[in-house]
Amino acid sequence: MYPEIKIRKEISPDSSVAIIIKENQLPDWLVLTKTEQEYARQRIKEGEEIIVINSYYKLSIIISEKEFPEPYRKHEELRRRAAKVRKILKEHKLNEITVASVHNNFSAIAFAEGLVLSSYEFNKYNKEGEKGKMYAYPGEVFLYGEYNADDLKWLNAVSKGVYFARDLVNEPNNYLNAERFAAIVNQYAGSLGVKVDIYGKKKLEALRMGGILSVNKGSVDPPTFSILEWKPEQPVNKKPVVLVGKGVMFDTGGINLKPGNYIEDMKSDMAGGAVVVAVLSAIAEAAINVHVIGLVPATDNRPGNDAIVPGDIISMYDGTRVEIINTDAEGRLILADALSFADNYDPSLIITVATLTGSAENAFGNQAIAAMTNADRNIFNLLYESGNYVYERLAEMPFFEEYGEMIKSEIADIKNLGEKKAGAITAGKFLEHFTDLPLIHLDIAGCAISQKDEHYRPKGGTGTGVRLLSEFIKRMGEQQKEKYKLTKK
C-alpha cells in the first residue's frame, strides 16, 4: 500500500513530527518540555544528525540539515536520512508522521520522498503479508505548511510509479509472463488515462517482427508488444518522445545458458519495460503536457522448443538480417524491432532503457546508469541534469562510429554481439543501427535490482529510471512551454 503524501496546515501537540532545522533553530510550534529542549540543543551542539525525543505518546525527530556545494546532494542526503528515520518509525509502529522544515519547503519534500521510497516492502507471498497492507510504517506522510498542489501531485505520481515498477520487477516469472505483464500494463496505465494497445503473437507475425519472435521461439509462452500513448489535448511538443523498454520476463540466456550465479536474478530482465510503463503512468496521473509514447516488447528467453542457436540468421522488422553469435544477447533483438517500429510515430527523440549488458554493470556497479547518445547535446544535458536532481546519475560512454565496425557480419548485415571489449557500447551501436532518429540509450543493468537495502532503495527491484525519465519529460515540457511563449510573443 502506497503511503500517500498529504498537506497538513495545523499540527496538534500530540502529533509525531520530523523537523528539518539549520543550526539550532527549534520552532516555537514544536511542543517540547524544557528538559526535552535542553536535551535537543545539546545533541545538536554535539553534531548529531538525527535526534529522537520519545514523549511516550509521540516522537519528535530533529534532523540537522547538512550543506553541500550542489543543492541536489543536500536533497539526496535528506532522502537517505529519511530512510534511517523510517526504520525508527517502523520500530515504534508509528503509522503517521508530519514532516516540516524551518526554512525550505524543498528540503521537506526531499525528506518526505525519502520516507515514502524507503517504506516499500514486497511481502505479497509471505504468510505475514496482509492483503492490501503490503507497505506500512508510515502509512501516511504529511507535509506541514503551504505547498504547491501540483508539486505534491507530481511527487505522489512519480513515487507511485516507482512502487509499481518495483512490484513488477519483484514478481516471480511463474506469475508474470509476457501476457500477464501486458494485462497488468493495460489495467494500470489504462486506468490513469494512458491509451494502451497490446499486440499478440499473430500480430507480431503479421508485422514480421523477427527479433521478438526469434527470441520467443524457445518459450512455451507467447510474446506481447505493449504500445502506450499519453497525448494531452494540446501537448507542448509537435513530435512525440518515444520510450522503449526491454521486457525480457526471464532470461536464461537461451542456448548459451547463463551460469548459476548470473541466472538467479533474471526475473529482473524486464526492468526497462517496467520503467517505461511507470513513467507513462506517472506523467499521465500528473497531467504533464507532453506527448509521449512507450513501447515494450516482451517475452522470456529460454532454450526450449525451437530456440534460436548461434549461427542462425534472422530477419528483423525493418528487413535487416542479423547473425546470431550468442543467444544471451537477446534484449537488443527485441528492442531493435521496437526501435524500427518507433519510426512510424516520427518522434523527435527515442530513449531506450534496458538491463542490457554485464559490461555496463562491471563498469559502473550500481552507482550510475551507462548512457550513450547521438542526440543533441542540449537534450542529453537536460537528461544528465535530471539524473543529478533525482540522484539517478548518468555516466556517459563514447558512441564513436568505429565501435559499429565491431558488430559487422561477414554473412549478414549485422551480428548481435561484438568482441568482448566495449560490450555495453557495441550493444548500443547495435540498437542505433535500427533507427536514423536521435537516440539516447540507457543501460540500467547495474541499478535495476539490489542485493541489499541501500538507503531508500530496497533489496530487490529498485525502480531506477522512473524518477530520472519522469523528471526529464517534465523539464522538457517546461522548456517547450517557455519556447512556445517566446514564439507567441
Instruction: Work out the count of structural domains.
Output: 2
Please summarize the sheet with the most strands.
9 strands, mixed
List segments where confidence is low: pLDDT < 50 over at least 5 consecutive residues. Answer: 484-489
Would you give the CATH topology of the largest domain?
Aminopeptidase
CATH-level-2 architecture of the largest domain = 3-Layer(aba) Sandwich
- How many helices? The count is 14
Shape: elongated
State the fourth-level CATH superfamily of the largest domain: Zn peptidases
**Nearest-angstrom radius of gyration?**
24 Å
Distance between the termini: 47 Å
Structure description:
The chain folds into two domains: 5-147, Leucine Aminopeptidase, subunit E, domain 1 (3-Layer(aba) Sandwich), CATH 3.40.220.10; 172-488, Zn peptidases (Aminopeptidase, 3-Layer(aba) Sandwich), CATH 3.40.630.10. The protein has helices at 34-45, 71-91, 105-118, 149-170, 178-191, 201-207, 210-216, 260-263, 271-285, 331-342, 358-364, 377-390, 423-432, 466-488, and strands at 5-8, 17-21, 50-54, 59-64, 96-101, 140-144, 195-199, 224-230, 241-245, 247-251, 292-301, 313-315, 321-323, 349-354, 369-373, 394-396, 414-415, 439-443, 449-450, 460-461. It starts with a strand and ends with a helix. The radius of gyration is 24 Å and the shape is elongated. With 489 residues, the chain is of the alpha/beta class. The relative contact order is 0.12. 37% of the residues lie in helices and 19% in strands. A hairpin with a 5-residue loop joins strand 12 and strand 13.
